[in-house]
Design brief:
The chain is α+β, with helices and mostly antiparallel strands. 69% of the residues lie in helices and 8% in strands. The protein has 14 helices and seven strands. A five-stranded mixed sheet has the order 2-4-5-7-6. The two termini are 98 Å apart.
Length: 529
């Protein structure tokens, strides 16, 4: 059975893909796997380093005595060549001659290991001399064999004797060289022993450092994983006790623990927002209930005041109509027009007081009021209007604009004998319709403006019951400017509905209303018809 049957390539590939994916994504698996792999790698590298260091020392020790072994092998080859030479010269055997040439070739190759450089070294000089003597010795043996084969007895004996003399010198020099190399190798071996001891100490030191490093890596990896879990458990206990103001944990990673931490804090934030919304809705509900009660009290107070001012309205209307008919019969057209404006003015006051109205209706009310004042005071003041017709259908509380104009006329222009000016401007300003009433009268001082704009809601009834000549309160049956501001704020349920600007030095005042375009009359209290 082949190994592929035990380890299918598909399984290996799937395992490798999962392994690479685990390393490429910052997950708990990676945070556990990386320290294990790192510590294993460090241990493996340490082991490899130790083995390689020992092998290197062993190789160097082997190399130390290899020269003696090579020299011994060389001497053995020389001896065998000498032996086969004597055998051939004695027997003329072809086997001996064949062995001679074979050993001669081996000896020639072994001679290449000898160092024949021209260096002032005892060992190298001995090797060079041995090399040259071997060459001479081989030449003599070759000549002896050639003479033997030519049956020249005298020559082969002479050459053989010369070869024996050189052979003796070769052995002597080899013995001397062997002694020199052994002495040098012994010194090298002693040095290698010291190096081996040093390497042993270094290996022990490296293994100790690696073990300490592995322990630190495992501890740090464990702390990085367990610390957020412990912190999250403590915060979960705090949330269980009802404390939602827990500090957010920042694990500094993007693994499953980070997702769990973010999800937990997202849940805490959602709970906190939910509780805050419930608290806010409760406060708003209580505030709206208080506003509704305040509005109801205010309307009841206003209705009572309005009823006091009406004094039998049907009799008043009938009387005004009779006066208008009499003036018409007598041909007094201006008197007729005046009486009709007065009738329309009081009819609007009575009919629409507790209803909301359009801006167009409020402007018509102002026109009636201005006409009556023009008849009374002739040319003491001038009235101008700049109207954007697209804004006339916006809804607003009734009897708001006329009291502002009356305040400008009665208090701003009351001390002016001529050249008075009242101007109304209507324009769209963002999401609001801006209605500005401007006069060139005596204006407001800053104390009065601050008092009007900061007047609390609960002071409405008190202001309505007071009678004074200040600009905050109108005389008689009229409506105070503070009352207008409070009604607007109650109607739209916002504070930024009115703005007052005035220059104490140059005089004049500018009161601007801000009517929301998106106002829905269904939001008004059911008590307002």
């Amino acid at each position: 059975m082949s190994s592929n049957q035990f380890f299918p390539s598909g399984i290996v590939r799937r395992f490798w893909r999962r392994f690479v994916r685990a390393l490429s994504i910052n997950t708990l698996q990676k945070r556990l796997l990386v320290p294990i792999l790192l510590t294993s790698l460090l241990l493996g590298l340490t082991t490899v380093f130790s083995v390689m260091s020992i092998n290197s020392i062993v190789d160097r020790i082997n190399e130390t005595y290899q020269s003696n072994a090579d020299l011994y092998e060389l001497s053995q080859l020389i001896a065998r060549v000498e032996e086969h030479t004597e055998s051939y010269l004695s027997t003329r055997s072809s086997t001996s001659l064949e062995n001679y040439y074979k050993q001669r070739d081996d000896l020639t190759r072994a001679m290449e290991l000898l160092d024949i450089r021209s260096v002032d070294s005892e060992r190298i000089i001995l090797e060079k001399n041995i090399y040259n003597m071997i060459l001479s010795w081989l030449d003599e043996t070759e000549l002896a064999i050639s003479a033997k084969r030519g049956r020249d007895v005298e020559q082969y004996i002479a050459h053989f004797d010369e070869a024996r003399i050189i052979f003796g010198y070769i052995n002597e020099y080899i013995s001397r060289l062997n002694t020199v190399q052994f002495r040098q190798n012994y010194d090298n071996y002693h040095n290698m022993g010291q190096v081996l001891n040093t390497v042993e100490v270094m290996d022990l030191l490296i293994v100790s450092v690696v073990l300490i490093a592995n322990t630190m890596i495992i501890l740090l990896a464990t702390l990085r994983i367990t610390r957020p879990v412990v912190q999250l458990a403590h915060q979960a206990e705090e949330v269980a006790r009802g404390n939602l103001e827990v500090e957010e944990i920042r694990p500094g990673t993007s693994d499953e623990l980070s997702v769990l931490t973010r999800s937990f804090h997202g849940m805490v934030v959602s709970l906190r927002d939910y509780v805050a919304r419930i608290r806010e809705n409760t406060i708003k509900e209580n505030f709206h209930q208080q506003q509704e009660l305040t509005m109801l009290n205010y309307l009841q107070e206003a209705k009572l005041k309005n009823l006091q001012a009406q004094i039998n309205p049907h009799f008043l209307f009938n009387s005004l109509n009779a006066g208008a008919q009499l003036a018409m019969m007598e041909g007094a057209d201006k008197t007729t027009e005046l009486i009709e404006n007065i009738a329309d003015f009081y009819r609007y006051n009575i009919k629409i007081f507790d209803h909301d109205a359009t801006l167009r209706q409020e402007l018509e009310m102002v026109s009636h009021y201005i006409y009556i004042q023009k008849v009374r005071f002739a040319d003491r003041f001038d009235f101008k209007q700049t109207i954007d017709d697209a804004c006339l259908e916006v809804r607003m509380p009734s009897l708001i604009l006329q009291p502002i104009v009356e305040n400008a006329f009665a208090h701003g222009l009351r001390d002016m004998e001529s050249d008075g000016l009242i101007k109304i401007e209507v324009m769209q300003n963002g999401d609001n319709v801006m209605v500005c009433v401007t006069d060139n009268g005596s204006g407001f001082d800053q104390v009065t403006i601050d008092k009007l704009m900061s007047l609390p809601q609960e002071s409405i009834n008190e202001q309505s019951n007071q009678q004074s000549d200040s600009v905050v309160e109108r005389q008689g049956a009229g409506i105070a400017l503070s009352n207008v501001i409070s009604r607007l704020r109650l109607f739209y349920r916002r504070d930024d509905v009115l703005e007052i600007k005035s220059d104490e030095e140059s005089g004049g005042a500018r009161i601007c209303l801000f009517i929301p375009l998106d106002y829905d009359s269904s939001h008004v209290d059911s008590g307002r018809k």
